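Colleagues,

Please find the record for the two-part complex below.
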Amino acid sequence: MNKYAFIIDVGKCENCNNCFLACKDEHCDNDWPGYSRPQPLHGHRWMNILKKERGVFPLIDVAYLPKPCFHCDDAPCVSAGRGGLRKREDGIVIVDSAKACGNRDLVSACPHGALWWNEEEKMVQKCTFCAHLLDDGWQVPRCVQACPTGALSIFRGSDETLREKIVEQELQPPPDSQNRGGSPRCFYRNLQRYTSCFLAGSVGVEQDGVEECGVGARVVLKKENEVVAEQLCDEFGDFRFDGLAPGSGEYLLEISYNGKVMKSGPIRLSASRSAGTFVFSS
Amino acid sequence: MQTLLRTVMRTHTGFSSRCLKTALKTLPAMARLKTWRDPEVKNRLRQRDMTALISVRDIGLKILLCCRGGTVTASESQGEKTEIEIIFNDAATVWQLVFARNDHLTILNAMKNFRVEVRGADEKVIWFIQTLSHLAGLQKEVEYGTKMGGGVVRYVNNTNGGPVFVYVRNGKIVRITPIEFDDRDGRSWTITARGRSFTPPRRGTVNPYVFGLRSLIYSKDRLLYPMKRVDFDPRGDRNPQNRGISSYERVSWDEALDIVAAEIKRVKREHGPGAILNSCGSHHTWGNIGYWLSAKTRFMNSIGSSQVVHNPDSWEGWYWGAVHHWGNSIRNGASDTYGTVEDCLKEAEMIVFWSSDPESTSGVYGAFEGTVRRQWAKSLGIRMVHIDPFYNHTAALLGGKWIAPRPDTGNAMALAIAWVWITEDLYDKEYVAERTTGFAKWRDYVLGVTDGTAKTPEWQEPETGVPGRVVRSLARQWGSRKTYLSPGGLAGFGGACRCATGIEWARSMVCLMAMQGLGKPGVNLGCLQQGAPVDTHFYFPGYAEGGLSGDLDNTGLRVSMYQRMVQLPSMNPVSQLVPRMRIPEAILGEEITGYPTDPKSIEGQFRKFGYPAPGHSPIRLYYKYGGSHFGTMGDSNRYVRAYRSERLEFVVNQSIWFEGEAKFADILLPACTNFERWDIGETANSGGYSHHQFIQWNHRIVTMQHKCIEPLGESRSDYQIFLDLANRLGLGNLFSEAMTELDWCRRLFDASDLPTRVSWKDFVKKGYYVVPAPAEQNRAPVSWRWFAEGREKDVPELAPLPADYAEKWRKGLQTQSGKLEFESSSLKRFDPDDPERPPLPSYIPSWEGHHVKELYEKYPLNLVSPHPRYSFHTMFDGKDSIINDVREHRTLIDGYYYWIVRINSVDARERGIADNTLVRMYNDRGAVILAAQVTDRVPPKTVISAEGSAVYDPVGEPGHSADRGGCVNLLTSSRNIISRSHSTPSNSCLVQIQPWSSGDVS
């Protein structure tokens, strides 16, 4: 049986909101009998784009995490829904408008925050994977069609093929989704852009009375006297150790240039940060 | 046919006369036949009863045509009085016109030489002529759209943000999507670079706001009926002081149109020429026929009105500055960018984005077409550097070094880069020697030989806040790698060109490229946003080519279309000009000086003009089109206050939505969107100042813009509204040439190259045509390559004008020397001692920046107001659209959607501001209430809040209180960048920010 899943590349999302808005274009003021009642004009985020800004001026970056309904296998909402939500054979989870009506408690049935209460319709609503379109011959849902960067895509195939793809492409489940219940059918590439943190900094070198960028300065990152990583500063004298776990404790930096060494730390890494600028005097 | 025509015309008058009489008398039989076969003709004839006299003077023929109850009768006239008369000078003309059919030149020549004249009410004449056209079989109902099953029809339309499919069921729009090509659509191009092949996806992209359209079309803020301000009485109290305060009442179209027509006549009678002013935004709903440069221009010319001169607000520094060093006046000082996608992918090693965020601004009309090309560049390892006070969305997507200068200091860094190149021998000396003039003088200025100040990286540090070492490193990388410079999202735009130092910044960008050998492989302008290898030899006009305007002076009509689409010319007899940035002062009757946006030559901008023009009336009647100015013009409380002046006797606003300054009109005329009328237009093809703008797109997509639904409520198309007014002013026939909008679309189709590729029938049915990519050998050459190699110009643009070449046509640049000029000869001629704009690009600190001590102490934050990402200026913003829900556009707090301002975490902490704190941003010009977004994407002391709020919502008296709609331009200066210009310095704006308490209306 071919089943659907979302595959989302965090490295390609630029928060253009085309997915979020195309979803609204499809569902606000449109009734798709058998699939969904109209989404309210405002308030719902069936495709919810979360933002993570990392670092301190001027060494920062920004990542976005588009978050639709994960269409979980063993979905907690389906088990809690008393028929208000159902799992289709193709993996898509759909709200049954008749049976879900009036049950406000269902909103909390989703541990991932993908259910939204429609006050007018008196029912929960969520991303339908645009099942009404797929059943009508469309190849992809509206959000994927609208995505200009290739960040959003879908998978259609057997669970076995999906498992292979996950391993092969190092796809990750949604952050913090484990142990919350359900097995999400939504996987991410480059998720570390959103979940990990970095320690960055800049190196300057005084030469001939002016400060130059510490191009090629060696920076060693240590934790409990063990070398975690090392790198050479780039042409702007910047370094950045990425992929560190937030709250992963205290780090030390050892920076060397032309035989001179500077040390910094301990640096407690609760979130991405800059260690500042290290200037080697002549 | 021609032979037959000539035979009949030459034949003896008696024979001709008999033939004519017979022909005219067979009209009723023809009508009967037509009504039997064609229900549309039948319905049309039933629309009204009418009597018409057709006379042919030379043969004394007079035939009376009666149309009653859907039946036509013909008889010889016995001198009855008829509603309309059509008078032919001679029988030969009748025959000529009978056979002319769609030969508009023949028809117009007959009209101009009075060989045919019409009398009677315009509206009736137009109906009669269109009915004759139906009888002659010239009007065939067009079949259009694609049936998708389930009662859904898919139509096509077009927008600022890309072409779209429009799904309609039961007369209502169900969805709007991007266009995906099918196998029959024109082929795509492929670029081979560094061993890889790149082909764009077979689709069009769209901007986010395009998905907001359905919610905007059906918005609760749509104007559905003509409205009158309740306390406006054209015959009694007008109460101008209540504009922006009083409510409106619904009136009939007849009442509204009668009032507007009567007011137009009254002010002309009472005040004379010049009393009518029309103004509109720079952009409009898409389409060449309905565009403001088309229908509106033709109408305003027809009634005679003072013209608003648009400052070149996208280009400012380029138009007033860069043009003096490299010419390119026709592009307002921006550069052409042909062939640069291929050259950049093949050759470039680095791209410097300077004040350039194409992922937000889409160049202009470019949707996300450039995104995939920049992703290719990234995958090829081309380095990227982003110079911008905001860590913008392009930087966030692509990565690379972010360098954040203090706003409004741009060319200090540019001079320091030049200093490094000069002192470290990192520039192209041979190119400088052969292709440029004046370098030695500029070099001496940069080195400090002339003024004692060496423009070192350390010198620029206190100006820009960027460490000298970073600038030194940037200069070395740039000077030793083949580098593309993208000043602005389009080469020749950028927020840095719209500030007090903007002219000097743009000039210094030209100088930097001149030092690096502009045009050599991999050394050019752009960021892959422009320069796709699409077919530039296939002709379809851009909107700035004037549509049906008939205006050779103020549109690009004379470039191609005056020969291709014959039409009645329209000339405005009123020569009075009003600088757009001075509309409030003009309304208040003040004396004003202005400088024109005249891209014909480098010197066009020097021609100073005054207001009021000699012998002209000051403005008394304001015909406003839409509601944009409060959210887009500088110090816009001025505009609010001007509306409420007694000197302004009448304000009419023709608007789709009840928004912004539309709420300050006396009469509101509800216009419909382009989804409710016919039009035709090519994606991103603006023509005019941005020749071949469509090279931003991966495919050229020409669209028939289907009338997808009927106009909502009683709204009407702009064309129809102008025609309704023109009919009341006895101008209807001249305005319309008795043609419908669909007729005009057909005329424009015929005037383009489309008929060589696709039939009208097929084009209308499918709704779009993808121009196939040209053979590789027919791709446009790379811009500037010819110049770098000392050849004659070979890129496909007509400009500059032949007379602007010193040597011969297409030899050298438009500058006096024909070379890139470090020291500008045009500025030396104009005023060599101008301290604001000296002939050498220099560092002149901002007049509203950190050097202005007292002001800076009071207002220590630099506000940058870039183009918004999720709306197109004021278009698509507000109006209860789904765009309001985009977190980085507006924020919902206590039930209200506030415009956002980004503030650095340090500045926020000092002021007790957190995410979503409502803040009051203010200076001496006004105050705006905004929602804070605390971020390190901006440096300390810099705040970012986009221009373009469509909502003006004063918390107290309009023009004198804080606005919580988000019009940050209430705070920006109305001063010109330099006094001898007409230019907005919107990014030179010092402000203070504090938390807002809701009782504070100041």
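The CA atoms of residues 169 and 189 of chain A lie 8 Å apart.

Comments are welcome before we finalize the supplementary table.
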